[in-house]
């Protein structure tokens, strides 16, 4: 493979092994091995922050806070805009780095870099449009003024599945709002975060405004930061389990929380759907990042009349995908993030088969190095199988049959999650009627991809609290201040 030929500039893992990044300084260290899931080999080792390092990062964020808050919005906007331009300029290197440490196929990695950079462009535009309010009291005798102020130091915790985009989706609005931040990326994929911090430096982000630390003790390090009264915001993206733990921890100091958590997206296909469009959408909703996405279609509910044709079409498309190393330009489905992830997928598929599911393609881990699972389609899956309840986070599409609209709605809502849902139907009246009854934060109608920096991203039920992106995303990093005015 052309791997080594492509590792230049920001794509070089060794360049980013210099972390931690605190107060504008790089402090070398080691202790956390970063693996290449495509080969099972070590890519680099990054520093392992202690609680004391985390406190130094809070000091640095505090030292930079008043200067950043006082920086005119236009200037903050221009720094974000330059950061967007630098990410775009170095997109191919960043995509290679993501493909190396995360394993996702290069086209997915390129898509992620473009999506990630857009959060900086979008929030460069929003930084200068912070809303305020002027109202009259109902009695007519007084005035109400509402201003929005930066909330304070924000701790940002991100997962491994979108190492660039989950970070920019938080850093963009936080910096636009006037907050300083401490980013803790996932241990599996820290190199992209460090690479982006270098680009941020180049873009003119002042020392201490963005700090990045990796740690093998996320609980102790985060708890210490949350207990510090200077930290006023926690923005977390990750699993619902860790989100619950962090909400309890943040409650001790009443820290404001935004939570982007797990999903279990239903994908509804009605008899009147355009079959080819539904299959195109299914492939995007299922296979972006090889299924390692919170918005990934986790349950395909297909109406009886179109069920057979849908299963046949999906099976043909899934079976045709080329599985291989993420960094290989021909790959369409890369490895999973860890061998543990493969074991989890195997457990869910084996359990479904034992309960009566039929495999139409795939169905067993690939021998190779323990990181690969093939694109898989299951039909006849019982709705009480574990695979219908848990996030699969892999390239497996379980298909369930339904008869009536009411059944589809009941099945789709039968989960504690509520992040994303998809509907395919050519009857827009029906799609809107069903959509209104789905318990979800986001709904794709005849679309398999919903992520857009200009739209509010987030879930209901146990999929989270708050929204990222869109025009409201910046307010997650601001507090409203009300002035009761008499004049
Ligand atoms: P995870 O295990 O919850 O980890 C997420 C982040 O939390 C990592 O940085 C992790 O650090 C850190 N962490 C773990 N335990 C912690 C603790 N006790 N205190 C503080 N931080 C802690 O999730 P993941 O496996 O990386 O990501 C997959 C999950 O994220 C899925 O459930 C997916 O649905 C969800 N997700 C949601 C969205 C969304 O927008 N709703 C987007 C993407 C992913 P270490 O890496 O060091 O353990």
From TrEMBL:
Residues 26-481 form the Aldehyde dehydrogenase domain. Coiled coil: none annotated. Keywords: Oxidoreductase. The active site is at 260. It holds the Pfam family Aldedh. Belongs to the aldehyde dehydrogenase family. This is NAD-dependent succinate-semialdehyde dehydrogenase. It comes from Shinella curvata.
């Amino acid at each position: 493979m052309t791997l080594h030929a492509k590792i230049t500039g920001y794509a070089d893992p060794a360049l980013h092994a210099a972390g931690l990044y605190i107060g504008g300084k790089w402090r070398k260290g080691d202790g956390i091995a970063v693996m290449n899931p495509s080969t099972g080999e070590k890519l680099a080792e990054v520093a392992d922050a202690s609680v004391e390092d985390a406190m130094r990062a809070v000091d640095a964020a505090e030292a930079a806070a008043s200067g950043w808050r006082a920086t005119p919005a236009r200037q903050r906007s221009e720094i974000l805009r330059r950061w967007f331009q630098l990410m775009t300029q170095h997109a191919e290197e960043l995509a290679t780095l993501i493909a190396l440490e995360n394993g996702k196929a290069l086209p997915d990695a390129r898509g992620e870099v473009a999506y990630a950079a857009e959060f900086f462009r979008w929030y460069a535009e929003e930084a200068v449009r912070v809303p305020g309010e002027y109202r009259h009291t109902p009695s007519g005798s007084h005035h109400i003024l509402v201003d929005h102020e930066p909330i304070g130091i924000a701790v940002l915790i991100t997962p491994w599945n979108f190492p660039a985009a989950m970070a920019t989706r938080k850093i963009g609005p936080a910096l636009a709002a006037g907050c300083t931040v401490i980013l803790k990326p996932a241990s599996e994929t820290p190199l992209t975060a460090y690479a982006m911090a270098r680009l941020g430096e180049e873009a003119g982000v002042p020392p201490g405004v963005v700090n990045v630390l990796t740690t093998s003790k996320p609980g102790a390090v985060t708890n210490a930061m949350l207990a510090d009264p200077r930290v006023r915001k926690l923005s977390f993206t990750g699993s619902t389990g860790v989100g619950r733990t962090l909400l309890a921890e943040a409650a001790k100091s009443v820290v404001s929380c935004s939570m982007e958590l797990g999903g279990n997206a239903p994908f509804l296909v009605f008899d009147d759907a355009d079959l080819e469009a539904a299959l195109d959408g299914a492939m995007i909703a299922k296979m972006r990042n090889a299924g390692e996405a919170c918005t990934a279609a986790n349950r395909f509910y297909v109406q009886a009349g179109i069920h057979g044709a849908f299963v046949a079409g999906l099976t043909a498309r899934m079976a045709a995908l080329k599985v291989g190393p993420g960094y290989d330009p021909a790959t369409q489905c890369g490895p999973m993030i860890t061998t543990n992830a493969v074991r989890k997928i195997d457990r869910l598929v084996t359990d479904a088969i034992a309960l009566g599911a039929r495999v139409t393609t795939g169905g067993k881990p690939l021998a190779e190095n323990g990181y690969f699972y093939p694109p898989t389609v299951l039909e006849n899956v019982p709705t009480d199988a574990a695979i219908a309840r848990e996030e699969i986070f892999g390239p497996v599409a379980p298909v369930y049959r339904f008869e009536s609209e009411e059944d589809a709605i009941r099945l789709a809502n039968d989960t504690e999650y509520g992040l994303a849902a998809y509907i395919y139907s050519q009857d827009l009246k029906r799609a809107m009627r069903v959509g209104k009854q789905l318990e979800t934060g986001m709904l794709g109608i005849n679309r398999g991809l919903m992520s857009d920096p200009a739209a509010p991203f987030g879930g209901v039920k146990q999929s989270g609290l708050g929204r990222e992106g869109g025009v409201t995303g910046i307010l997650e990093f601001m507090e409203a201040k009300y002035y009761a005015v008499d004049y």
